[in-house]
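quick one before i forget lol
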Amino acid sequence: MMTAEDTYLHAVERMLHGIAPEHRATVLDDLRGHFADAEEAGRPIEETIRALGAPQEIADRAREEFGAEDSRAEVTRAEFAWRVLQGAAVVLAIVIGVVVAFIMPSYAGSVDTMSSDGTSTHVDMTQTLTEVNGLWVALIALVPALIALVPMVVPRRARTATASAAAVLLTLMAVVGGFTIGGFFLPTVMLGWAALIAWVRLRRSGFGVTWRIVGGVLAALPVLGFLLPVFRGMPGRYADPAEGSDFQISAWGWPFLAAVLVLAVLIAIGYRAAGWVLAALGLVMLAWALVSGELFALLVIWLGGLWLTIGLAHAVTASRRV
């Protein structure tokens, strides 16, 4: 249950949406100091609140002290983060759409051909979605890119509503598509939501330590999922009897997983460079999955998209002090 002090501080924080995060923290810490002094002196909290003034008055005094540059800087920062994340969503959707429709083999089969001398030859063949279903599939594969592009061309006043609608629509397409075409666009969905959240939060209270910790935990969870079978031992029904019952990680996999864990910790602490590195690793995984055609390519695309989204979002929203 929120106390009168909590309610007052929350109201002040909402009024300070145009002030830089470090200056908001200064104002709130100063107010907490006033409440602590009042408690030590035995003064009623209501008296302290009346002495401090209404939340709007606190916000007005803060803007006078720190100047109007803070508000413009926050809008510029939010605009930059939005453009980077939403632009990445559009570009990734285009690339994935082209690869899925025109390049990635999606059908494997064989045909018997008859030569001029009557000899039958068995030929294995693979075909892309476009070759099997026609050009209309390629057009469908580019629909997510068009949806992600719409919020970037509408007026700024309509951006939040349009971006929300686009994110919801892309999410529905990915869920309905599942392990078919729609599933390949899950990284675009994640980037779209990240862009929307960054646009809203940076113009208000910004991203605090809780957001950084959540990002670090989300980045680390897949790694912990890989390591859990190693320490517990994979059940026999999943193991190769010739190699024993333990789940194995390749030699190159260990340093890769360790690097991701280190980056996750650095993101939780707040180091911006860790975000760029994690985003680069995610992008590499995405590229490999799209061109490899391996059995678990879709899962790798999802994992690469997760790390790309977390890393890029942290890199463009983290405070310049770290």
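fyi The first strand starts at residue 105 and ends at 114.
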